């Protein structure tokens, strides 16, 4: 299996479907596009790790980002409130020429995510840049949770708010912890790592974002089957928008993902940094030939 090698591959427009695992992508993509599909190995099992390992040099890329971890605020990963578990000083603005903070402009507070249609509208509002720049990336949040039809993104909302606070306070997150910060900061990474390694905590982390009515689906079909079905629904939401946009793009269009999503494989749920299991690092690489 080839490594993903985003920056060394040939493309004019790269569409990133966040947290999209290869097998689910393979099962649905023919409903939206035709093309040459490969399985590739992502460089990371979560967005911060993927970004830091993928964009290491200076890249003349225009990046439309619905994911707050790739932002134009100039905040290193190791200073982000929710990036502490990946110890890297990588900063988006040091490596990517132009970043549009779509996550900041069109975030849906009720759902706790950026809707695919809103990403498309934002990109179309900046169409002159898309046409004039040699390389553009459009990064959708789907199929990443929350599952649009079945819940709200409480955790992702919290992440987004932490970035808003950093932006308002001049990017200095080191002063946000209050009087207990000197006590909490040294142990915070250990707490995060414990939670990331607890299968029960990981599973609960997915379930808490579901609507209460989802308990009936979970009770009838089981946790994994229900989450996988909701996840596919989310992928289809994102794919429909991505295919619509791809149909209007000129040049080589590639659809890929930053990492996958786990549903109990090897005791892992969701996705976490430095967890290189197949469900998280096997991602699609599709060169689009035709949109249906």
TrEMBL record:
<protein>
    <recommendedName>
        <fullName>Sulfatase</fullName>
    </recommendedName>
</protein>
<dbReference type="InterPro" id="IPR017850">
    <property type="entry name" value="Alkaline_phosphatase_core_sf"/>
</dbReference>
């Amino acid at each position: 299996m080839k490594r993903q090698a985003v920056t060394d591959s040939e493309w004019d427009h790269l569409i990133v479907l966040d947290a999209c695992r290869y097998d689910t992508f393979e099962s649905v993509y023919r409903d939206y596009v035709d093309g040459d599909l490969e399985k590739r190995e992502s460089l990371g099992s979560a967005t911060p790790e993927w970004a830091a390992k993928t964009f290491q040099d200076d890249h003349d890329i225009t990046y439309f980002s619905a994911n707050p971890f790739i932002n134009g605020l100039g905040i290193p990963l190791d200073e982000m409130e929710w990036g502490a578990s990946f110890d890297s000083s990588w900063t988006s603005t040091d490596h990517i020429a132009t970043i549009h903070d779509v996550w900041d402009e069109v975030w849906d507070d009720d759902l706790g995510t950026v809707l695919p249609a809103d990403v498309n509208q934002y990109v179309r509002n900046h169409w002159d840049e898309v046409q004039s720049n040699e390389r553009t990336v459009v990064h959708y949040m789907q199929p990443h949770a929350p599952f649009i039809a079945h819940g709200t993104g409480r955790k992702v909302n919290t992440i987004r708010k932490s970035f808003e606070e950093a932006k308002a306070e001049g990017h200095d997150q080191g002063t946000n912890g209050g009087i207990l910060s000197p006590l909490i900061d040294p142990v915070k990474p250990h707490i995060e790592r414990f939670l990331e390694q607890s299968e029960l905590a990981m599973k609960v982390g997915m379930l808490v974002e579901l609507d209460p009515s989802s308990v009936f689906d979970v009770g009838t079909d089981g946790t994994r089957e229900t989450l996988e079905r909701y996840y596919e629904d989310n992928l289809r939401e994102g794919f429909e928008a991505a295919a619509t946009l791809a149909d209007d793009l000129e040049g080589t269009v590639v659809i890929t993902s930053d990492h996958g999503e786990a549903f109990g494989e090897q005791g892992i749920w969701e996705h976490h940094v430095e967890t290189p299991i197949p469900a998280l690092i096997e991602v699609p690489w599709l060169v689009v030939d035709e949109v249906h």
